[in-house]
Amino acid sequence: MNGTTDGTKLQEDWFPQVDSDIFISHSHKDIKLAQGLAGWLNQKFGLKCFIDANIWGYADELLEMINSKYSDKREDGNDGYLYNHTKCNTASKHVNVMLSIALQKMIDKTEAIFVLNTDNFIQKYGEVYKTGTYSPWIYTEIVCTELIRKKPLSEYRKQFLYEFAHQQDDIHKSYNESEYSAVYKVSIDHLKDINMQTLFDWEKNNTMDKYKLDKLYLITHPEQMKKIKNFYENKSSVLIG
Fold first, then answer.
1. pLDDT(48) > 70
2. Which of 22, 18, 8, 24 is nearest to 171 (CA)?
3. What's the rounded Cα separation, in Å, for the pair 142 and 26?
4. CB atoms within 10 A of CB 10
5. CB 28 within 8 A of CB 56
6. Of all residues in the chain, what percent are helix, strand and coil, respectively (each to 5)?
7. Quick one: what percent of the chain has pLDDT higher than 70?
8. Gap between the Cα atoms of 83 and 215, Å rounded
9. Which pTM value belongs to this model?
């Protein structure tokens, strides 16, 4: 349209929103670990996990396509290329915003977020940040988990209530000393700590129940699950009575 790209459509094509139960936040160095966990969760519980590198296009490839067309790409005479710096910055802003918004939407869309808290994910930065990351995308994801809507389980169980009433990196880029680097302070104190034993206990208590994540919540959030149980029991008595 008049030489202007439809940014919304481009974002939907490269970073589409998909139906998933769990968003797995990870370092690009831990992609195999993330994929292994996703496979285990799907095999044991039938849960669909979102791993950005498995679903989305690579942002740097999109940026190169845009720069090749719009940023005056030309050979530099040494088997490399030169670009217009200002135009590259403009393209980068658009692509990074598309990716950032898509990430935030997916985190908000999924019911649970698993963070692979390895040494690749969070690093100590001298005496400045005891928990920090060099990845702007990990920084985005962690901060987003603090800011997104904390939706009640009933939001994910609407279909259940309806039926009852009517009988419910590799985006992350590695950094080295030859390129720009920044560290960001992050906190994971608001996240629930789970380990392999938690996963095994969850698997052990796995039943034919429709909502597999509820069995995990019984371990990690027992008080909230008690409130949910009381809600359903009260709803049941109202519907039956």
1. yes
2. 24
3. 10
4. 15
5. no
6. 55, 10, 35
7. 78
8. 54
9. 0.73
CA atoms within 13 A on the CB side of 116: 22
* One-character DSSP codes across 85-98: HHHHHHHHHHHHHH
Distance (Å, whole) CA 74 – CA 68? 9
Closest CA to 174 of 32, 30, 16, 52: 30
pLDDT, one tens digit per residue, over 88-111 is 999 999 999 999 999 999 999 999
Q: What is the average pLDDT across 22-32? A: 94
Q: Are 171 and 137 in contact (CB under 8 A)?
A: yes
Q: How far apart are CA 209 and CA 110, in angstroms?
A: 19
Give the model confidence (pLDDT) of 191-238 as tens digits: 889 999 999 999 888 776 777 888 898 899 888 888 777 766 665 554
Whose structure tokens read 């060099």? 134
Report which residue type is found at 84: N
The more confident residue out of 184 and 133 is: 133
123: three-class secondary structure by DSSP: strand
Q: Which amino acid is at 63?
A: L
Greatest Cα-to-Cα distance within the chain, rounded to the nearest angstrom: 82
Among the listed residues 144, 117, 148, the one whose alpha carbon sits nearest the alpha carbon of residue 133 = 117
